[in-house]
TrEMBL record:
Signal peptide: none annotated. The lineage of its organism: Bacteria, Bacillati, Bacillota, Clostridia, Peptostreptococcales. This is Glycosyl transferase. Keywords: Glycosyltransferase, Membrane, Transferase, Transmembrane, Transmembrane helix. SUPFAM superfamilies: Nucleotide-diphospho-sugar transferases (SSF53448). PANTHER family: POLY-BETA-1,6-N-ACETYL-D-GLUCOSAMINE SYNTHASE (PTHR43630). Belongs to the glycosyltransferase 2 family. It comes from Geosporobacter ferrireducens.
Length: 450
């Protein structure tokens, strides 16, 4: 589920962490001061641009447009840049945890992938006991049969449950009654774990303060050698989503402990009555945890690989569902009800996402189209100068992620064409899809799990 970005530009930034420890409150304050200074400087430089647009649509409308295209995204992006500049990921203090863990795998027609998923669980280098519960959520294929046969063949401690009521939340909640371990992991049925994923994610939880109730793992693209759309998404997961989660985790409020691969304290899940009946059940669950004064972290070394949509239709359904899930979470858990100032800020940032996506969709994209015909009212040479910066910043983050891969014994696939398309065109696809997701939630259209 939606790891919905709180920052719209597909740009991330990581430098070498400072050697001197800086308290989180100071990092938060310093980053805001610098971001506001950047925004004020941007406003000053944009006066001629605003006046030019205002000649056609009035000055208030021009300010509304430029704020959505430049001021607010610039501020949010600057906050992200300088926050990550101050970041220093603490070392995992317990590198070889051995507490028993239960893994929940909710399935709907997954007979083609469930054996591989279980196979990668069996190859974990985790020293503790792993119990696996596969929940067949009203499948019409042989998911449960394949799961049972695979569990026996692999020697896994496996239980197969049947949940006839459709909905991922129903599948997970039915399995929650069978969990007898302190920790549980949710894993999508088409997601493959790196051999050390569970060791790292559990080690991060036990190396954290006692009020950390969940750790989000790193989900990357498995089918990045597939069609063009999957190749572009590889960079979204590898650079964009991973850096946003790192930022949120630094401020103790990762906004989505995604159902694809995350670790939770079982008792915390039970105290909030399990997974909610929501299209974005994982984001609402995470916000409920945060609103109970718990914290959610992120572990970059706990890596899993999932299949992403290769068809535009499937991608459209998935990402509009993510956008809808964000709005749903905002309605269920109000940002101002969050107890920590960091999570208040992080969740409140999502309130302006619909505005930014609407301006991008109905102003920036048409403005880009007009620029090809010589009308530079919205998009001109000055605004396009951000593209080299975007390339440089993503290149820096690439080298950070390369170090993560080196630690895990992985190699980054060569995908230059996908990277260029990600930087130049990805947001033009994402914003209109997100707008459609917002409208789906407003008009309460039918929910679709997959």
């Amino acid at each position: 589920m939606n790891p919905k970005k709180i920052f719209r530009l597909p740009v991330s930034f990581v430098l070498k962490p400072t050697k001197r420890y800086i308290p989180i409150a100071q990092k938060f304050a310093f980053s805001h001061v610098i971001a506001f200074m950047w925004m004020i400087f941007s406003i000053y430089l944009s006066f001629p641009w605003v006046e030019e647009i205002g000649a056609f649509v009035t000055l208030p409308a021009a300010f509304f447009i430029v704020a959505g295209i430049a001021y607010i995204p610039g501020y949010l992006n600057a906050f992200m840049v300088f926050s990550l500049l101050f970041d220093r990921q603490p070392a995992i203090k317990i590198p070889q945890p051995s507490d028993p863990v239960t893994i929940l795998v909710a399935c709907y027609n997954e007979e083609m992938s469930i054996e591989s998923t279980l196979g990668y669980i069996a190859m974990q280098d985790y020293e503790g006991e792993l119990k696996v519960i596969v929940i067949d959520n009203n499948s019409t294929d042989n998911t449960s049969i394949v799961a049972e046969e695979s569990g026996k063949k692999l020697g896994i401690n496996l239980t197969v449950l049947h949940e006839p009521k459709p909905g991922k939340n129903n599948a997970l909640n039915s399995a929650l009654n069978y969990v007898d371990t302190e920790l549980l992991i949710t894993l999508d049925a088409d997601t493959l774990l790196h051999k050390s994923a569970i060791r790292y994610i559990v080690g991060r939880l036990f190396s954290s303060p006692s009020d950390v109730c969940a750790v989000a793992g790193t989900v990357l693209v498995r089918n990045s050698r597939g069609k063009f759309l999957a190749r572009v998404q590889e960079w979204d997961y590898f650079l964009g989503i991973a850096s946003i989660k790192r930022l949120q985790g630094m401020f103790q409020g990762t906004l989505v402990a995604q159902g694809a691969f995350s670790l939770y304290r079982t008792e915390a899940i039970r105290k909030i009555n399990g997974w909610p009946d929501a299209i974005g059940e994982d984001i609402v669950l995470t916000w409920n945890l945060l609103s109970n004064n718990w914290k959610v972290y992120f572990e970059p070394l706990a890596v899993a690989f999932t299949d992403v949509p290769e068809s535009l239709n499937h991608f459209f359904r998935q990402r509009s569902r993510w956008a809808r899930g964000m709005v749903e979470a905002l309605k269920v858990v109000k940002p101002w009800h969050q107890p920590l100032i960091y999570t208040k800020y992080l969740t409140s940032s999502n309130l302006i996402m619909p505005y930014l996506d609407i301006v991008y969709t109905f102003c920036w994209i048409p403005g880009l189209f007009l620029a090809f015909f010589g009308y530079y009212w919205i998009v001109g040479l000055t605004t396009l100068l951000v593209l080299p910066l975007a390339m440089i910043v993503n290149y820096i983050l690439y080298h950070y992620q390369k170090k993560v891969f080196k630690t895990l014994g992985l190699r980054i696939r060569k995908n230059a064409f996908g990277f260029i398309a990600y930087v130049l065109f990805y947001q033009m696809l994402m914003s209109p899809i997100s707008v459609w997701g917002y409208f789906q939630e407003i008009f309460r259209s039918k929910r679709i799990w997959k």
